[in-house]
């Protein structure tokens, strides 16, 4: 009797078919969302380039914004390559650059706000380092 409790229940053919259909729908939705994100990033990058060429000046904020758009496209591409999963490092890196950009282009350079942004960036970077250190052995096994 104890052996029957430990056995995994078998899936009926109808349930398996329904599960595969639902997984397929979600896979297509994820694919569509990732394509939409990538295309939006490309459009925003082109708009920023147009603005830079129209004005004839490049500021650090413009470069950081173009870098953010590039990273968003890269994140979408990597998610499409890896079973539609996004590694946590990508959004954290994008958040760090976004906060740095906001610090640079902020209309008010209140020292208290700048300190909060700097502390936020530090926390994100420490979290990223911890994530990399915890996952380092797994990266060596895959390569």
Number of strands: 0
Instruction: Give the terminus-to-terminus CA distance.
Output: 45 Å
Give the averaged pLDDT, no decimals: 84
Give the helix/strand class: mainly alpha
What does this protein look like?
This protein has 143 residues and is an all-alpha fold. It has one domain. It is built from 5 helices and no strands. The longest helix has 43 residues. The mean pLDDT is 84.
Features:
143 residues, 0% strand, flat, mainly alpha, 5 helices
TL;DR of this structure?
The protein is mainly α and 143 residues long. The chain has five helices and no strands.
Reconstruct the topology from this structure.
Elements: H1 2-6, H2 13-55, H3 60-81, H4 89-105, H5 111-142
């Amino acid at each position: 009797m104890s052996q029957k409790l430990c056995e995994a229940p078998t899936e009926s053919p109808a349930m398996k078919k329904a599960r595969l259909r639902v997984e397929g729908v979600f896979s297509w939705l994820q694919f569509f969302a990732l394509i939409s994100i990538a295309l939006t990033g490309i459009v925003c990058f082109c708009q920023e380039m147009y603005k830079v060429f129209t004005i004839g000046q490049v500021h650090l904020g413009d470069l950081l914004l173009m870098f953010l758009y590039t990273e968003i496209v890269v994140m979408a591409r990597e998610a499409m390559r890896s079973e539609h999963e996004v590694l946590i490092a990508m959004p954290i890196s994008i958040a760090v650059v976004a906060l740095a950009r906001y610090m640079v282009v902020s209309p008010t350079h209140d020292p208290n706000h700048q300190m909060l942004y700097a502390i936020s960036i530090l926390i994100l970077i420490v979290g990223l380092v911890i994530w990399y250190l915890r996952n380092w052995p797994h990266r060596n096994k895959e390569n």
